[in-house]
């Protein structure tokens, strides 16, 4: 019985000691205002775009750039050299103020869409194989339609899972032209 009392006394002492030294850790880290973070992450409203007159859908260099971006996720992992007029990375100022390479985020459209020559093509989005023959020649879905779908697909489908590319600044109007040129080109 004496041993049990000693054990209880020791346990009580340890518990009391631990509680005396307990620290309120909620002040040890930042607790940001989540509502501000959510507002910052919300997409702007869907926007309708007109394909610039400067888009040359028959330019071999534009088609090559579009193809490259369509089939690659980013410059760091792209296996082939970027075609003329397209860079694999940009320079961005880091937190330390020094300029650093930031690899360009490409489309990786092939993750969701199939198209001629695709390796590991996805089947989530529409199949773009034979796009020129199937749609452009019949005027059902012309180059303006393709440009808008890539720029901001929410304009006619607010529940789409496709990336919002021009409205969010992920791509430039020229890059959207290159994607469009590749998709509507005869392969």
Structure description:
The chain is mainly alpha-helical and 187 residues long. The protein is 35% helix and 5% strand. The chain is built from 6 helices and 2 strands; from the N terminus they run αααββααα. It has a two-stranded antiparallel sheet with strand order 1-2. The longest helix has 19 residues, at 2-20. The termini are far apart.
The number of helical elements comes to: 6
**Main sheet, how many strands, which sense, barrel?**
2 strands, antiparallel
* SSE succession: HHHEEHHH
Question: How are the strands ordered across the major sheet?
Answer: 1-2
The helical percent reads: 25-40%
What is the CATH architecture term?
Answer: Orthogonal Bundle
The rounded Rg comes to 27 Å
SS elements, strand count: 2
SSE class: mainly alpha
How far the N terminus sits from the C terminus, by CA atoms, comes to 90 Å
Mean pLDDT: 84
User: Spans with pLDDT under 50 lasting ≥5 residues?
Assistant: none
* Binned strand content: 5-15%
Please identify which CATH superfamily we are dealing with.
Cytochrome c-like domain
CATH topology: Cytochrome Bc1 Complex, Chain D, domain 2
Total domain modules: 1
Can I get a quick summary?
35% of the residues lie in helices and 5% in strands.
Q: What features would you highlight for this structure?
A:
single chain; Cytochrome Bc1 Complex, Chain D, domain 2; 5% strand
Element layout with pairings:
Blueprint: H1 2-20, H2 34-41, H3 60-71, E1 89-93, E2 99-103, H4 131-136, H5 143-151, H6 173-184
Antiparallel strand pairs: 1-2
